[in-house]
Design the sequence.
């Protein structure tokens, strides 16, 4: 083999082997290429579509690569001089028809399957007689998820939900914010949180547990910290918590202040207010001045977004009390 050819061959082999070597790490890192085990009917519909399409993709991959390898071997140069063309082949009507009609049929079958699944994925199921869907307003703000329940309960970054009951999510972002995307893979597909628009999605968790997710639309500096989780608990436990949390919120004894601090403030200012991307706030005069804090949260600062612009007085009071108690001078 001439040196130049050998050199090229090495590069080609290297380029082929490297992805194989990294594939194992990638596989170990994300737990596999398949979606998480679905825990809600809409997530099941998504997984079935994923597997259905993957079966075709895998079969086509095997077919194409198999033929490619067979042809490379069958029609290799052998003793023909390097500068001489191989045999020219023209026309194979049946074959050409087959490779045109085949893909069209495959695409048709895939489209039909996905359209048949779409209602299960998209449409919020009607509530059974005697029960109601739980409707939660979800707002994505740089870099926090806020959940607002019909009875006024507010939670941050973690949505609590009853097992076996349909939870309808109305997802949006404030007018002054950017686009985010709600995504808890085990409980369904992504849904964009767009300023000024309300998008709907839903889930009905089949078992209790905590399901993790994360903002799926690059939304700024701390996009990666915009995590979300759904904690599914048995329905009776949920009902008890729901009423208790409301009472606590009204009495000012809930953990809302802490949740707001960790969700909205700590990502930039540090868990102890020690500073990070944002300024150090621990021990400053500001944190003990409710009025100044409220003004700052509602209007924003030079680099700080107005994270509290749309907060109610409950949230504002919860946060100012938390700040004063925990980070005050
Ligand atoms: Cu985001």
Sequence:
């Amino acid at each position: 083999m001439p040196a130049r050819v050998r050199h090229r061959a090495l590069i080609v082999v290297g380029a082929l082997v490297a992805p194989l070597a990294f594939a194992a790490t990638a596989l170990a890192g994300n737990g596999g290429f398949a979606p998480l085990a679905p825990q809600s009917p809409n997530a099941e519909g998504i997984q079935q579509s994923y597997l259905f399409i993957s079966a075709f993709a895998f079969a086509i991959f095997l077919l194409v690569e198999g033929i490619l390898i067979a042809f490379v071997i069958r029609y290799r140069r052998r003793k023909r001089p390097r500068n001489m063309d191989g045999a020219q082949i023209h026309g194979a009507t049946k074959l050409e028809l087959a490779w045109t009609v085949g893909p069209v049929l495959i695409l048709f079958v895939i489209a039909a399957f996905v359209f048949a699944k779409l209602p299960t994925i998209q449409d919020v199921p009607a509530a059974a007689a005697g029960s109601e869907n739980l409707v939660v307003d979800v707002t994505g703000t740089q870099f926090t998820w806020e959940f607002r329940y019909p009875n006024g309960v507010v939670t941050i970054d973690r949505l609590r939900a009853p097992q076996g009951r349909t939870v309808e999510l109305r997802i949006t972002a404030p007018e002054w914010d950017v686009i985010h995307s709600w995504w808890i893979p085990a409980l369904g597909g992504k849904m964009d949180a767009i300023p000024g628009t309300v998008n709907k999605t839903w889930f009905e968790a089949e078992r209790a547990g905590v399901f993790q997710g994360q903002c799926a639309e690059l939304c700024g500096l701390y996009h990666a910290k915009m995590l979300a989780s759904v904690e599914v608990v048995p329905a009776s436990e949920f009902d008890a918590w729901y009423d208790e949390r409301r009472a606590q919120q009204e009495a000012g004894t809930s953990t809302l202040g802490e949740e707001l601090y960790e969700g909205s403030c700590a990502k930039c200012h540090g868990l102890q207010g020690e500073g990070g991307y944002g300024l150090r706030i621990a021990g400053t005069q500001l944190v003990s001045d409710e009025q100044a804090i409220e003004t700052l949260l509602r209007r924003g600062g030079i680099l700080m977004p107005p994270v509290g612009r749309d907060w109610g007085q409950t949230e504002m009071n919860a946060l100012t009390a938390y700040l004063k108690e925990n980070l005050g001078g």
